[in-house]
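Following up on my earlier thread - several people asked me to post the actual chain instead of describing it. Fair enough. Here it is, all 74 residues.
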Amino acid sequence: MKPDRLLNRRVVFKLHGMDPLDATILKQDETGYWIRGGTLAGQLDQTNCSLPESDVRYLEFSRIEWLRAPRQRL
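Reply from S.P.:
Thanks for posting it. Predicted structure:
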């Protein structure tokens, strides 16, 4: 899947050593994704966040085992 098709979509992430969790991808850079909400944001380290009270977190590519976007319904 092309990265630009993932922006602003809810995606299921599988991180190494964790069950699959979901989040919305906000932005991508050369080393990872900025994600918001879902079940994933609460599991990520507080030091990788935009603001302490925010559910926006940074996720490095190296932590991702796989990801997939659910199929869109017609």
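DSSP finds one helix and five strands in the chain. That should answer part of your original question.
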